[in-house]
Amino acid sequence: MDKNSELCDFSFDSILNVDAVENVNLEVDRNVVIPTDIYISITVTSTDVIHSWAVPQLGIKIDAIPGRIANAVLYTFMDGVYYGQCSELCGVLHGFMPICVESVNIDLFFHWVFLNNDFFSVHLFY
Q1: Cα–Cα dist 7/39, whole Å
Q2: What pLDDT is attached to residue 114?
Q3: The pTM is what?
Q4: Best-predicted range by mean pLDDT among 24-28, 31-35, 104-108?
Q5: How far is CA 78 from the centre of its chain?
Q6: How far is CA 98 from CA 16, 93, 115, in A?
Q7: DSSP assignment, residue 8?
Q8: Which domains does the chain have, with CATH numbers?
């Protein structure tokens, strides 16, 4: 595999942080962490109903449809924490599906990946 095309492949779940003091209904237990200044390929799907992975601060909205795979490219040029939510009326708990993306420099990203390697079952490609 080309070293520059894909550095890692991982997935995980996160849920609403009910103990959040700031950004209530937007904080999650585990942020999606991505590196800054690198193009990120995002692949989404759903197993139950239509969801819509939307982070307006990053200018991205991608629909997750059962039985379909959707792809998008994400690029951030500034470190920071970006918030979004599912923007489809997907069910009873629709209002409690926050998305929290944290963009960090590449060194911190790889540090986070290696610290969470067992938990997220991360696969690195070199």
Answers
A1: 11
A2: 77
A3: 0.73
A4: 104-108
A5: 16
A6: 6, 11, 24
A7: E
A8: 8-121 (2.60.40.420)
